[in-house]
Design a protein that fits this description.
InterPro entries: EmrB-like, MFS, MFS_dom, MFS_trans_sf, Sugar_transporter_CS
Family: Belongs to the major facilitator superfamily. EmrB family.
CATH architecture of the largest domain: Up-down Bundle
Number of helices: 19
Largest sheet: 2 strands, antiparallel
Number of strands: 2
Shape: globular
Structural class: mainly alpha
Strand order of the largest sheet: 1-2
Keywords: Antibiotic resistance, Cell membrane, Membrane, Transmembrane, Transmembrane helix, Transport
CATH superfamily of the largest domain: MFS general substrate transporter like domains
GO cellular component, one term: plasma membrane
Subcellular location: Cell membrane
Radius of gyration: 21 Å
């Protein structure tokens, strides 16, 4: 049953307070982005420390992203119902406790389980942070700039994760990439309590537990088949059963959602071209980013014998490109709309992938740095127009769910990118990693070309009043 809150909406906070709220949310979002990628550069060290195989190491990354992707929509809905600040603070607390469990994990199984709990906490941060920012910025142009800043911080955290991870591992070992979360979580909890106002959606819905269960099953099965396929065999009975169960879960999810009056994910939203392309574009961008980072980590550390710090430093141009171009992209979206930033994003991303499609064992490091710079620029230009388009096409009262659907696409893309990259190089020795990665760089190129197509339909739909 849908209920409407009878109270009048509170007046908008002052300019300084609004941008302080954005800064606090951006700090918390930095945690989510960093933890999506910081582990990548530490995978070889984790494997040596815990005796894990390549397939097991993929689960260290994807246990986090799969759970995060599965719960984002329901977390956004819970925030709209029970209060965005309340859910945000709960997410920070869960994330912090799980980070400590990761740092203390004695085995691979415990680490994967703790990473899954981290994903639960992170799911309460990503869509809720965006909803808080949108709620605090009533002016559309100011909102577009704020989303640009928000996306730039998130993009920077994703790109800077390997650099920070390499430095921490070199100084303190792989467990430090989880210890570092504790002081940030404590600071964020204090700042949220002081500066972030409580807000709710004007409409609340019943929880869709069947839809949530089916969505979780579909994402888990899909990613699981991609990760375990090389080990069990793509045509083995286990893999065939996985394909069938994945298809059944997706079909059941669609059937349940189309029949419910208050679905977890309103599939009719995908009839809007702008919203659909924004969601698909977000997935493509994160497939490219996660695949680039994992292929680079394995090639440099396993194939060339680089240290984690050196491998992380090699991604600095990516972080630089994302840092510079993300706020620029937000400003362009505010003035010109999303099409031009998306054209730039697609062009640079495709160029970065093409640079490494013929990667060799002795490829010049300068070429690797150039490719990472191009990919970082493309990534920086992509997030603001995609986020603004997705949120702009839905009612403001559903900002939490709008952000959650787009964030779900990002995390599914990230999980798929890790799984596919791992599958491509799973059976390659150190000398064969470069050649085995060629198909992966072609996929990165294809993601960039796909964004060029997304740009044609990326104009935001008119805002629908709740």
């Amino acid at each position: 049953m849908t209920t409407t809150t009878p109270t009048a909406p509170p007046s908008a906070p002052g300019t300084r307070r609004r941008w302080t709220v954005l800064a606090v949310c951006a700090l918390s979002m930095f945690l989510v982005g960093v933890d999506t990628t910081i582990v990548n550069v530490g995978l070889p060290e984790i494997g040596r420390g815990l005796g894990a195989t390549t397939h097991g190491l993929e689960w260290v990354v994807d246990a986090y992203t799969v759970v995060l992707a599965s719960l984002l929509v329901v977390s956004g809905a819970l925030a709209d119902r029970f209060g965005r600040r309340r859910i945000f603070r709960l997410g920070l607390a869960v994330f912090g406790v799980a980070s400590l469990a990761c740092a203390l994990a004695p085995s691979l199984g415990v680490l994967v389980a703790a990473r899954a709990v981290q994903g639960i906490g992170a799911s309460m941060l990503s869509p809720v942070a965006l909803a808080i920012v949108v709620n605090a910025m009533p002016d559309p142009r100011e909102r577009a700039r704020a989303i640009g800043v928000w996306a730039s911080v998130f993009g920077l955290s994703m790109a800077a994760g390997p650099v920070a991870g390499g430095a921490l591992i070199a100084a303190f070992g792989w467990r430090s990439v989880f210890w570092i979360n504790a002081p940030v979580v404590v600071a964020a909890l204090v700042l949220v309590a002081v500066f972030v106002p409580e807000s709710r959606g004007s409409r609340t819905r019943r929880l869709d537990l069947p839809g949530q269960a089916l969505l979780t099953a579909a994402v888990f099965l899909f990613v699981g088949v991609l990760i375990e396929g090389p080990r069990v065999g793509w045509t083995s009975p286990t893999a065939l059963a996985g394909y069938a169960l994945t298809a059944a879960s997706v079909a059941a999810f669609a059937r349940v959602e189309l029949r419910r009056r208050e679905p977890l994910m309103d599939l009719t939203l995908f009839r809007r071209p702008a919203f659909t392309t924004a969601v698909l574009g977000a997935a493509a961008v994160f497939v490219a980013l996660s695949m680039s980072l994992l292929l680079t980590t394995l090639h440099l550390q396993h194939g060339r014998g680089w240290t984690p710090l050196a491998a992380g430093t090699a991604t600095l141009p990516m972080a630089l490109g994302a840092t510079v171009c993300a706020p620029w992209s937000g400003a362009l979206v505010g003035r010109l709309g999303p099409r031009r930033p998306l054209l730039l994003a697609g062009g640079f991303l495709a160029a970065g992938g093409l640079t490494l499609v013929d990667l060799r064992q002795d490829t010049s490091p300068s070429l690797l740095l150039l490719a990472h710079l191009l990919i970082g620029i493309g990534f920086g230009f992509a997030n603001a127009p995609l986020t603004n388009t997705a949120v702009g096409g839905l009612p403001p009262s559903r900002a939490g769910v709008a952000g959650a659907i787009t964030s779900t696409a990002r995390q599914v893309g990230s999980a798929v990118g890790i799984a596919v990259a791992g599958a491509l190089v799973a059976d390659a020795g150190p000398a064969g990693l470069a050649h085995a990665s060629h198909a992966g760089w072609l996929i990165v190129t294809a993601c960039g070309l796909f964004l060029l197509g997304v740009a044609r339909a990326a104009q935001p739909a008119p805002t629908v009043k709740a």
